[in-house]
Each structure stands twice: as C-alpha cells, then as structure tokens.
Design goal:
By secondary structure, the protein is of the alpha/beta class. It contains eleven helices and 18 strands. Strands 1, 2, 8, 9, 10, 11, 17 and 18 form an eight-stranded mixed β-sheet that branches. Strands 5-6-4-13-14-15-12-16 form an eight-stranded mixed β-sheet. The chain has a two-stranded antiparallel sheet with strand order 3-7.
Length: 416
C-alpha cells in the first residue's frame, strides 16, 4: 500500500478499515544470503539499501526486541553535517543529502525538519575553531554561516548573553541541520525494506555466531540457527558482546548517554542549539517538549538508564545557557547505550572473520548517520569494496594510528 493524502482521505471515509500492516512479520527461513544482526536504524537501512541499490533478494534483519526499542528510539533526533576532518566530513555530507530525499524514497513521513542548528562559542579560540570548521563545511559543499553576538541574538533572543563565566561570543549556523522523528525513521525503513522482500524478524535474539575455517557460516538465535553467506553486526552498544561470539575483541567501550524531555510547551525554540562550554544541546519537538542532553555518564555500562550526577550536570548546563528552562517540568528521561570508539569516529569494515562485517563506534553521531551508514555498509557487503565516503572508517586504523580524532581529545573512549 502506497501512502498518500488521497489514501488517508479514502480510509477516513471507510472507517480506516483498509490499512494493512506496515511490514510483514514472517517466520525465519533456514538460510539467507545476507543476515543483518540489529533492527535499529543502521541495520534496517543496511537491509533496505542491499535490496534497493544492489538487488539482493535474500536478506533478513534479526532484532532481539521490537523495532525501535534500541538506540533508534533513544536519542535526541539531531541531523547535521557540520564535521571538520576529511573522512568524517564527506560521510556526513552524504548522509545529509540522503536525509533530504528520504521521505520521498521511503514513501514515509519521518518528520525531517531542517530548522537549522547553531553551535555557540564562548571565547576567541572557539570562534577561530568554528570559523575553520565552517570553511571546511563550505569546501565540502555544505552550508555554514558565522554569526556574531547580534546575529545569535536575532535567532535566539532568550539565551543568557550576559553570563559572566560563559559569555556568548557568537555561533556557527548550519541552516540545513535540524531534527527528525527517531522511531518514524525505523518504521519507514522497515516498511520500505519489507516491500522489497526483506524478512524482518522481531523478538529474535542472536546468541552465537558459528565460525568454521575462519568463515562465518550461521547465527544461532532464540528461534533456531539461521545459515548465511554474509553476516553484519549492527548492534550499537552491544557490538563488543556480539563480536565476541565470533571470537573478536573490538576497540569499543559502551557508555550510557542520557536524554530528557519536558512537558509540552508553546513553540519557543526554532533551532537546534548546542552549548559549546557545557556540552549541552536542545531542540523542541513537534509535540512541544524540549528535548535535550549532554555528556555520557563517563563509566562503562550496559544499563539503559542514567545516573543522578550526570542528570544534575545537564540541568546545570541548561540553566546556565537559558535560565527560562528552570520553569519547565521534566516529563521523562532515558538512556541509550553508546558504542564509543577510541577516536570518536565510526567503523564500517569487514572483520578478520570471512563473511563477517562490522558497523559500530558511532559515539554521538549514530542517528544522523543512519542513511549513509546503511548505504555504505550495503555497498561493502554487496561489492566487497568500501564506499568512497567511508573508506577511512577502517577497523585497522587503531593498529596503524591513522585515526579520525574529530575533537582532538586523543585515544580515550569517554572523551569523545
């Protein structure tokens, strides 16, 4: 069924009795050409592009819970392409271009809103750094506008511009940045992939990977063993655990990143705003809630919940940047399990086990990377060659030292 305004009108007149399930829920087959472990945004987009771009007919996505139960439904929904280093810059630029055509491609409203993103800076040094970043973005073909304090005030008059400790010197505006509805992205990719013949198997936990002669042969699941010619591990914060099933040790740490949302308020924040000195970011959802977050919890954990000290830190940053938020009541909070890499950049590569592929290490950049991540991993699995915009995301860079340290904080997971 193709969605359209006419279809909504017709179904409304018929009592909405003609809608069909958005995706099929088949029983798993004994074997597939390609199996994707992980039914989040990255896994679903990989399966979709395998079918759409490369014509792979036998693909299965295995999700241990329900679609949208992982990080794809536990993030602050920010979409941007404001990266600086070669390697990261072209990848996220490619991803943003895919975002801009995503709703048409999927025939699904993912509520992509290019409302603009403003990174604030608070010192001369930060201004110079953001000017360089803006120039790099423009050279890449993206958009960037350097704002002085009056320019920021024109867009964000409600900020505390007179804060003694963190005065606002200006900001870098990325007009094409914005947000999207996180779970709608999962639903849209699932529906589109299912229409192309991909089997989406929910409540199917992978418990082992059978490796024979150095080659991945099958995955063991809670629904039985499934043979596969190629297997992709796309499980975010659980990457180390799943890779260990194949005897691999990854340079990944798992940390919790908390996010918060307030009660619904009248529209007051038009942009996504990032507070450079407090690692705080905020936007307003279409339902009126202020959605915001900050740093990871700084200790390794698989618990999808956060600790109180980091919650307090985020609230302090919010009050420093915009005191008006103190009158808003926090409605709920949640934690996503982040797969933190040593240099803060992702891994899209084959592993030493033949037929086993890896997609992980997304740090804070996972949601906005969903389209390009799936596009590039599908290209790698189908052709055997890395896509040109993801060639620097190699696994062996941590052995060779060819790192992509975007923040310049060194090879320490929790600093990215």
């Amino acid at each position: 069924m193709r969605y359209s305004g006419l279809r909504v009108l017709v179904e409304g007149l018929r009592g909405n009795r003609g809608w069909r399930p958005a995706w099929h829920r088949p029983e798993p087959k004994d074997a597939y050409d390609m199996v994707v472990i992980g039914g989040g945004g990255h896994g679903l987009s990989t399966a979709y592009y395998l079918a759409r771009n490369h014509g792979v007919k036998s693909v299965a996505v295995l999700e241990k819970g329900w679609l949208g139960s992982g990080n794809i439904g536990r993030n602050t929904t920010i979409v941007r392409a404001n990266y600086f280093l070669p390697g990261n810059s072209e990848f996220y630029s490619h991803s943003l271009k895919l975002w801009e055509g995503l709703e048409s491609a999927l025939n699904y409203n993912v509520m992509h809103s290019q409302r603009g993103l403003i990174n604030l800076f608070h010192s001369d040094g930060q201004r110079d750094a953001f000017a360089r970043r803006g120039n790099a973005m423009i050279n890449q073909g993206d958009d960037a506008i350097l704002l002085d304090p009056d320019g920021v005030r024109e867009h964000l008059p409600w900020l505390d511009f007179e804060n003694v400790r963190f005065p606002i010197y200006g900001g870098l505006l990325h007009p094409r940045g914005g947000t999207a509805r996180h779970d709608a992205v999962a639903w849209g990719y699932a529906r589109a992939a299912s229409r192309l013949g991909v089997d989406i198997i929910e409540n199917c936990e992978v418990t082992g990977i059978r490796v024979e002669g150095g080659k991945a042969k099958a995955v063991t699941t809670s629904l039985g063993e499934i043979a596969a010619k190629k297997v992709a591990i796309v499980v975010a914060g659980r990457s180390s655990e799943v890779a260990a099933m194949a005897g691999l040790t990854l340079p990944i740490e798992s940390h919790v990143l908390q996010a918060f949302v307030t009660e619904g308020l009248k529209p007051c924040i038009d942009h996504v705003v990032s507070f450079g000195m407090g690692h705080f970011y905020i936007s307003q959802s279409d339902k009126g809630g202020l959605v915001f977050g900050g740093d990871i919890d700084f200790y390794a954990s698989y618990a999808a919940r956060g600790n109180l000290p980091m919650a307090e830190h985020v609230m302090e940053a919010a009050m420093t940047l915009m005191p008006m938020i103190g009158r808003a009541r926090v409605l709920r909070s949640w934690g996503g399990i982040m797969d933190m890499s040593p240099d803060g950049s992702p891994i899209i590569d084959r592993t030493p086990v033949e037929g086993l592929y890896l997609n992980c290490g997304w740090n804070y950049g996972g949601f906005k990377a969903v389209p390009a991540s799936g596009w590039c991993l599908a290209h790698l699995m189908a052709t055997g060659e890395s896509h040109e915009v993801a060639r620097r995301f190699r696994l062996d860079r941590f052995a060779t030292g060819h790192l992509l340290d975007e923040e310049g904080t060194g090879s320490q997971h929790n600093l990215h």
